[in-house]
Design brief:
CATH architecture: Roll
Number of helices: 3
Strand content: 15-25%
Distance between the termini: 39 Å
Largest sheet: 5 strands, mixed
Oligomer: single chain
CATH class: Alpha Beta
Length: about 100
């Protein structure tokens, strides 16, 4: 099971209290995780990535094992610790302003 940590506003939208746990087929990639997340929680479609282009929304970041994976390609395999459920996949709303 993959562990996914969502920002508070997406947890509220999905009506979950804590991290989400989903079965994801190997290889575990950003695309595979987001496909499984949107299939289980259809209300999240379009909030994390654009529905037409499937590209990550600009103010959304992905973190694994303390590293920013936001600019990796969607089909890049994620670390083994995420794939085996030891470490969570973090979806974070980026801060903007100036």
């Amino acid at each position: 099971m993959i562990r996914i940590v969502l920002p508070v506003h997406l947890r509220t939208l999905a009506r979950v209290d804590d991290e989400v746990k989903l079965a994801v087929a190997h290889p575990v990639t950003q695309r595979a995780i987001l496909d499984a997340l949107e299939a289980s929680y259809p209300m999240l479609r379009g909030t994390i990535r654009d529905q037409t282009t499937q590209r990550r929304r600009v103010l959304v970041r992905f973190f694994c094992c303390g590293e920013d994976f936001s600019h990796e390609t969607p089909d890049t395999p994620l670390p083994v610790a995420v794939a085996n459920g030891t470490e969570p996949f973090f979806i974070v709303g980026a801060m903007a302003g100036g």
